[in-house]
Amino acid sequence: MAWIVLLFAGILEIVWAYSMKLSEGFTKIIPTVLTLFFVMLSFALLSYSMRSLPLGTAYTIWAGIGVVGSFLVGIIILGESAHPVRILAAILILSGLILMKITTE
């Protein structure tokens, strides 16, 4: 169950990062409120998952989901650069997440 909660926490990190971008430096009220709401929910779910998962594993996977997911949102939705080196970097991060998951007891 903790892994599923952690996955949702990571997805919500992507959501709050995207809404923070849309807030334009917290100058737009609705994206700002959404950012704050999803930040709190993401942290709450991360905290819950840490009840049974090791700190290093939970935090690394949560952050990694957010990093890779935000990277993909940037490319797919915001039209950011899909340079091959950037894609390689995301693949390396994803590889690290997979290794972290399979080596956690």
What class do helices, strands and sheet pairing give?
Answer: mainly alpha
Shape: flat
**Gyration radius from CA atoms, angstroms:** 15 Å
Low-confidence stretches: none
Largest sheet: none
**Mean model confidence by pLDDT:** 95
Strand content: under 5%
User: Which series of helices and strands comes N to C?
Assistant: HHHH
From the N-terminal CA to the C-terminal CA, the straight-line distance is 14 Å
The structural domain count equals: 1
Number of strands: 0
Helix content, binned percent: over 70%
Number of helices: 4
Structural description of this entry:
This protein is an all-alpha fold and 105 residues long. The chain has one domain. The protein has four helices and no strands. The chain is flat, with a radius of gyration of 15 Å.
